[in-house]
Amino acid sequence: MSCFNWICILFFLGLINFIIGLNAMNKFLSQNKSFNTYQDLEQFKSMVRKQMYQALVQIVFLGGMAILGIVGFLIGKMNTFEFLMFLIFNGINVGAGKYGKETERRIRTLSIENLNIRAEYNSICKTWGRKAFPSF
Q1: Which of 33, 68, 78, 98, by CA, is between 20 and 30 Å from 43?
Q2: Residue 36: what are its φ and ψ, rounded to 5°?
Q3: For residue 52, what are the CA distances in angstroms to 7, 56, 84, 89, 91?
Q4: CA distance 108 to 125
Q5: pTM higher than 0.85, yes or no?
Q6: How far is CA 64 from its chain centroid?
């Protein structure tokens, strides 16, 4: 299989992973405009854990795609058209990432009135944005 075929496979796997993650975040938002119970917090934790693990998988897909694209072009395993498609794929990934970050931002700014839950919610949000693995 050619270098470009592998790039296409990784791109589409990453796209599927992105869509699954985005759907989960949108579902969570549609069900939770705000929350104040520990049951809601547990649902939030579960969603965030999955998002964090999916982000690690996404790094493998997109990182692998990037390495294959750059190395493939440099050693002559990709022609100009394939390299341009690789650049377009990366542009799509950047756009999708920005769109996903906006949805993530909306989740991180939900209204939480219960002070005990708000403190834990803020801690989870901080972990989500700064760490690779969930620690909650």
Answers
A1: 98
A2: -140, 5
A3: 23, 7, 31, 23, 23
A4: 6
A5: yes
A6: 15
